Amino acid sequence: MSRRAKREEEKVKSKFFSKIVIVAIFLGLVFFVLKVTPNYRNTEVSEKTNLVINNSNVTSDLKHDVIIREGVIYISKEDIENFFDPYIYYEQGTNQIITTSENQIAGIVVGENFATNNGSKVEITGTVLQENDTYYIPFSSLTNVYNVEISYIESSDTITVDSKDRAHIVADSRKNNRVKSYPTVFSRDVDKIEQGETVTLADEAENGWIEIRTDTGKLGYVKENTLVNEYTVREAIETKEQIEGNISMAWDYYSEYVYPPDRTGTNIKGVNVLSPAFFSLVDEGKGAITDNAGEEGKKYVEWAHSNGDKVWPILSNNSYIETTAEIMRDYNLRQTLIENIVSLVLKYKIDGINIDFEYMYEEDKDLFSRFIIELKPRLKEIGAVLSVDVTAPDGSPEWSLCYDRNVIGDVADYIVFMAYDQNGISSPVEGTTAGYNWVKANIEKFLGQEGVEAEKLILGVPFYTRVWEEHNGEIETSTIDMKSIEDVVPEGASRTWDDELKQYYIEFVENGVTNKIWAEDEESIKAKLSLIGEYDLAGAAFWEKDREPDSIWNVISEILEVE
């Protein structure tokens, strides 16, 4: 063989071996990706009882193993918090676990085989277990609380949990089929199904493949065209909002000494929710409620409903700080208050409740959140809306720092920002009641640092302002209705538009006293309402009815698009 021929032969051999190496590397990569790398949805753990929640294997995410004892399935408190109830709570005073879902609240006494479910005592199978520092909840006895279906598949040592508010769709296999770990024929088998076997559809089809769950609880993929007879076992439950579009709520105030206003035969343009001051806490009443509604209140509700408006009456704590603290610090008193609220909602056939608890101890912040967490499912069960009033996220401990706006905004249907009293009645300095720049800045705090969803935030708007009087270096202030401003301002008074506040500053001297007013009028209200569209907020609430000129409702109706 010539030297040249030898070199050519060596080149051919080299290219051949290079191709072999490339193919080997490629096949190795394919093996690694398809055989070794786990499916993010199919995280089966062979040495443990597997937990599949809504067609997702979460076993590897469990903090503690699931326990099955005498037919009862136990899940740790920490794992229930992670997957089902972020606000599950151990109540030390009563030695029970308090857990809530969309429309259920349950209190399970540690070591006892009963629970209090939405105010009723029920027997359960199993008890709360305590092992070391971990509580285990008899989850299989609480399926009605969490609104789930649960099954244990012994052959694969798998527990499946399905939420009843989700759609459940199944189909039959038209042939014997291999279930793949990935949507590719090269991936490993996770299960086998036979012709005619029914499987649960876990996800929508993509690129000709569809994810399924077999009757062994295994998750994997089959070709979409290998399934037939698809049908829906259970439709998804769709939540319908009471109010479609923007909320426009008018607080309607009166005291225990004044009957609800008789508005028979009238209609308030631009309003779709009325919040009359029906209810308040009884001072030292252990959760008792003063009912200011009566027969006149029933007529009020009938009038509102006849106009297509919803009624979410105020429940005020009347700033009874000690009474509020006593109730918040006692689970049984909180439940007494909640039962009284539910009874009043049913009695007057009202559509919701507006919680207006002002002036509370900062140390009770988390307990007030607990009250909202525990109240929400009881109201949800009877179809009533829960809204909660809060102040701006700054200020004094008892005025501002007593609210956890993030939790309240997460749990309640709506959180109402009382965007007024920027300079309140006790303010040492004069100034506006609700300047545009201050309102805007605090909305951004709600949506940013407080973590409140825009679609849950209702903007409270004042129908009042204050007159600040300066005399001999001292300042006095009084509240004035929006509709009465022009009655007290003399002709020729100085008016200056403040573009940061988006309102007129008025100043005049009367009897040697300098009067200062930061006026609320159509222009200032327009500016504040524009923020609802800018930030996609839920709507507005107005404090309070009958302090406004009638013309303002045309403005509100136009901006909020509420007839």
Please explain how this structure is put together.
By secondary structure, this protein is of the alpha/beta class. It has three domains: 50-150, Copper amine oxidase-like, N-terminal domain (Copper Amine Oxidase, Chain A, domain 1), CATH 3.30.457.10; 167-234, Roll (SH3 type barrels), CATH 2.30.30; 247-463 and 521-560, TIM Barrel. Helices cover 26% and strands 31% of the residues. It is built from twelve helices and 36 strands. Strands 24-23-26-27-28-29-30-36-21-22-25 form an eleven-stranded mixed β-sheet. A five-stranded antiparallel β-sheet has the order 5-6-7-8-9. The longest helix has 34 residues, at 3-36. The chain starts with a helix and ends with a helix.
Average pLDDT: 91
* Overall morphology: elongated
Strand order of the largest sheet: 24-23-26-27-28-29-30-36-21-22-25
Q: Report the total helices.
A: 12
What proportion strand? 25-35%
- CATH topology name of the largest domain: TIM Barrel
Describe the largest sheet: 11 strands, mixed
Helix/strand structural class = alpha/beta
Q: Into which percent range does the helicity of residues fall? A: 25-40%
- Radius of gyration, whole Å: 32 Å
